[in-house]
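Thread: Newbie trying to understand structure tokens

Hi all, I'm a second-year student working on a class project, and my supervisor (Dr. K.) asked me to get a predicted structure for one chain before our next meeting. I've only ever worked with sequences, so writing a 3D structure as a token string is new to me. If someone could post the tokens and maybe explain what I'm looking at, I'd be very grateful. Here's the chain:
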Amino acid sequence: MKKLLICIFLLVYGTIFSQNYKITYLKSSNGNLIEGQDPVWVYATETAAGISSEKISLKKADYPFEEISIDRSNNTFYQIATLGSDRSIASKDTTSLAKQTFEFLNDTKKIFGYNCKKAKTVINSNTIELWYTNDLKIKGAPTVLGQNLGLVLEMIRNGNFVIAAKKIEKIKAPPSFLWIKPIKIVDGLTYKDLLWKSRFTTIPVFKDQIINFSDQSVSNDTILRFANGTIAVRKVRIPEIKLGSQIFVDVTEQSNGDAYDRTGSFFIIPTDKSISFLDGLKNGVKTLPLYSNGNGKEYQGVVANATYSPIVELMRFFTPFGVKQYNNLQLKDKTWAENVLYRQDVSELRSLLSNKEVWIGINIGNYDKGGHKVSANFTIHNEEESKTVPSQVIPLFCTNNIMEMAGQEYGTMFNTDKGLEVSFKLDQPLKNCKLRYITTGHGGWENGDEFVPKKNSIFIDGKETYSFTPWRQDCGSYRLSNPASGNFPNGLSSSDYSRSNWCPGTVTNPVFIDLGNLEAGNHTIQVKIPQGLPEGTSFSAWNVSGVLIGE
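---
Reply by user tm_fold:
Sure, no problem. This is what the structure looks like when written as tokens:
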């Protein structure tokens, strides 16, 4: 986790005589010092005119680092954050110190030979105990909390997290100010927000992008639109991502006219082979490789072969019924959400992203002229140390018909015993292999597979390795994101009903299926699902996608 170095000091006014102290604090959890931490330094000055603390010096630390300045003359503190080599912000607080309240206990002990007393307070359900001394004519603490008690030498949160003084030194003079530079003064909330965001890298991909169905949709120099506007694609430069870092994607969605629950996907288009999904977007779905399972239909671009890699779904999400656009449909005691945020960890796909220019796409299947409005980002959260082993990611299949509005066939290949089968070749052995598998069932009438649990079975080289029945029973939890959902005589909303691994307004999480060690050579993966029979013009389909991940 990125280090955050906090140093605390107080401003000095008209000192006649002074004795300067430097107190070094370290953090521990459950009795063990936290590895790789930067210390917290407090510089305090004893003066004949009164008590104050001093300025600070920082050792080299990763950005951001934070400094706190206490002005005891008016109980004010300043937070100063250095976000980069040329960027600093500060915030002023004139009320928090005066509002602190403590319960003073009878416990006493000695720390570094100084007599210490104990005070306790509760903040956000956390019990915090502070051991402080008045033997020295200085005040200070490793955080803003307890600054006026005396010199705080230990802070204990919930009995297991401790910030404790490890050294008290007399010094000739405090170090010179490091933060005297152009500083942007901001309010407290803005300060916290900017400091938080500086700890990770954000890569914007789409901002308020319209995903609709219209023959008027056009591309521009940055964003390409396909399938009558239901797909948006752009090339994104991803920096190098340290091994073991956390990678998240987030999508924010609002209805811009469409009232229905729709399938959405945020995805990577691999371009490592001679044919890519991008060719199908540009030149038509018929230019993609075909898959046949013997049921008389042909499925475009759904499985990998020697010349083609299918898309890799970063996130599959489902829009709710009309969030934002239809919030005027009022119900008693219902306050509708303004948007839906989908956020997911995709760290396992690092090797497809790190230090590359990548084609990233987003789609929502719909036939509405207003459609939906979406924003999407990557965030990269670096780790200082990691024992993570590098992995290889191999795209295998995706039956989610992203190009539905451009004629791509639905995933109805599971109505034969063959189901979905893909062959692949490994040039070298892979250890600890996993299949990252996403599955959702569709067919939105009473007997359709959307509402009927169906077993998914995964076979590797002809042997069944995993089976489960994907099903979501928590859909009623998302009622406040579904203002346009239909209401039935039995008292349920359409968005309440359980479904085959999805709910209106949610993400469908991948399942990671252990495949063990795979030798170099040819292999097959097969997916079997007992797909329901059509009824009239209604039919069932399954959107499944899978990538192989191995060491």
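A couple of things are worth pointing out once you decode it. The first strand starts at residue 6 and ends at 10. Residues 188-197 form the longest helix (10 residues). Feel free to ask follow-ups in this thread.
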